[in-house]
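Hi everyone, sorry if this is the wrong subforum. Our group has a chain we'd like a structural model of before ordering constructs, and none of us has done structure prediction before. Sequence below.
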Amino acid sequence: MNILMIDTSGPACGVAVMKDGQMVCELQLTSGKTHSQRVMPMVDSALVMCEMTAADMDLFGAVVGPGSFTGVRIGVATVKALAHAAGKPCIGVDALEALAANVTGFDGVICPILDARAQQVYGAMFESGMPPVRLMEDEAEKLTAFLDRVDATGRNALFLGDGVAVFEAAIRARLGDRAHFVSAQHMGLRAASACALAAEYAKEDGSLKDCMTLLPLYLRAPQAERERAAKLAAQAAESQKENKDG
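Answer:
Right subforum, don't worry. Here is the predicted structure as tokens:
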């Protein structure tokens, strides 16, 4: 199977190509340019280096979240367009599961975390495997609540993801010697890991989607929507108060 995978869900922009079941190319870039500026040039470069075209792909994949709302939308929209143009199916890969797929052979719980701001993380727990064995669903919650879940397992825990840079000290303070961290080259989401997962997902009935049904994975509403909802709630409360006083 030939698969083109795109990840724009976080700080890095990544593209990976699988040809006949073998990973043949992975490009990853973290720079000042936005993902929308670099993702298609990276796709073009990967295909040229592999001497392939979009028409050669059997499947197009995107990391659908959780992650940056804008970044996720860029990756999903790009894959939908490529799949539509090529007349091929597409597939979504969970960002936290793709992170967990960076790790093999750890005898404990694998804890991918992404910085969700406001002292919150997007987090999940897995055991090592391909695909990783899920122990909890993705959650957006305070770091303290997530660490409560990890602590309750009583097991060693391996952390990775962009949340580590923000919360490593707090994790060590809470879990002590049971807290472990991957090395730098495994810390971020790898497009190749997501591509390998897509190949596994594709074996399952009903996993493939068309370009109309591939959707982002949001664990909470975007900030603009949350602010709008808060504003409307405040206006409604003020209106009720005025009616009561009147």
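For your construct planning: The chain is about 40% helix and 25% strand. The longest strand covers residues 109-117.
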